[in-house]
Structure formats: structure tokens, C-alpha cells
């Protein structure tokens, strides 16, 4: 198929210099607002102190990170089959010794580990079968 005159050449940028730094809308807005920032922050603080819920939320969202559930190190006797290990983890979660997020992560890791073990066992079985199928050399 012949290329038309409006098609760009493959591998060649139509704008090799790219967009100049500081020319985006966000950069221009920041530059325009920079001189007014102290006054804006002062008004925001005053509104938050006066009880404006939106201002309070803006200030708290910027000053304090979102809280995430945490748990201390948990010592779990997770031995046996993958199902028994998962049951021990669920028991730790239900008893409050482990957060649901941590339990989910550990159970996912156990699932990956189980799949890796299964793959390793399948490879060993295939190799054993292939060794049995190899013709023996007769002298």
C-alpha cells in the first residue's frame, strides 16, 4: 500500500523537540497561583477553624495520611497441608491477631507456593517417565 503525503514516517516524531517544560495547563496554573498561595492557605485555615467542613477535610487530607489497618508480627503454627495452613491463618484473623488484609496476602502467597510445588512435582514426574521411556543401548 502506497503511503499518502499526510502519513508520518515510521519511527520519526512529528514533534522532535517535544512540549516545552512549564507550558502545560497545570504548570501555568501553579505559576499563576504561587504568589497568592500564602493568602489562600491563611483563608483555608481560617475557614477550617471556623468549622467549614470542606475546609477541615482539605486540611486533614493534606496533613494526615489515610490510616491503614496494621497488625503486629504474628506467630502462627502453620504446618501441614496448604488447606491446614490457610485454616491457621484464618483462625489468626478471626481471633484478631492478624488483619484481614494481612491474612489475604499470606493466603495468596501460600497459593503461589502451592502452585510452584505442584509444577515442580509435575516436572519430576515427567522426567521420571521420560527416563523410563528411553531406549536402552544394547552392546
- The residue-averaged pLDDT reads 85
Number of helices: 5
- What is the C-alpha radius of gyration, as a whole number of Å? 31 Å
The helicity comes to 55-70%
What is the first-to-last residue Cα distance?
64 Å
| Sequence stretches where pLDDT stays below 50 over 5 or more residues | none
Find the structural class using helix and strand composition: mainly alpha
**H/E element sequence:** HHHHH
- Report the strand count: 0
The biggest beta sheet is recorded as:
none
Principal-axes shape call? flat
Beta-sheet strand percentage?
under 5%
Notable features of this structure?
mainly alpha; single chain; 139 residues
Detailed description of the structure:
The protein is an all-alpha fold. Among the domains are: 39 residues, no CATH class; 52 residues. It is built from five helices and no strands. The N and C termini lie far apart (64 Å). The mean pLDDT is 85.
Explain the layout of strands and helices.
Blueprint: H1 25-33, H2 37-50, H3 53-63, H4 82-94, H5 100-133
Write a brief caption for the model.
The chain has 139 residues and is an all-alpha fold.
Amino acid at each position: 500500500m502506497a503511503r499518502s503525503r499526510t502519513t508520518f514516517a515510521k519511527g520519526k516524531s512529528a514533534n522532535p523537540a517535544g512540549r516545552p517544560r512549564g507550558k502545560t495547563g497545570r504548570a501555568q496554573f501553579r505559576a499563576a497561583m504561587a504568589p497568592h498561595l500564602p493568602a489562600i492557605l491563611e483563608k483555608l485555615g481560617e475557614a477550617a477553624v471556623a468549622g467549614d467542613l470542606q475546609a477541615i477535610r482539605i486540611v486533614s487530607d493534606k496533613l494526615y495520611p489515610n490510616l491503614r489497618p496494621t497488625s503486629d508480627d504474628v506467630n502462627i503454627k502453620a504446618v501441614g497441608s496448604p488447606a491446614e495452613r490457610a485454616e491457621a491463618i484464618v483462625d489468626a484473623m478471626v481471633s484478631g491477631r492478624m488483619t484481614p488484609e494481612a491474612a489475604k496476602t499470606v493466603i495468596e502467597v501460600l497459593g503461589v507456593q502451592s502452585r510452584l510445588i505442584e509444577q515442580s512435582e509435575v516436572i519430576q514426574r515427567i522426567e521420571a517417565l521420560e527416563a523410563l521411556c528411553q531406549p536402552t543401548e544394547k552392546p
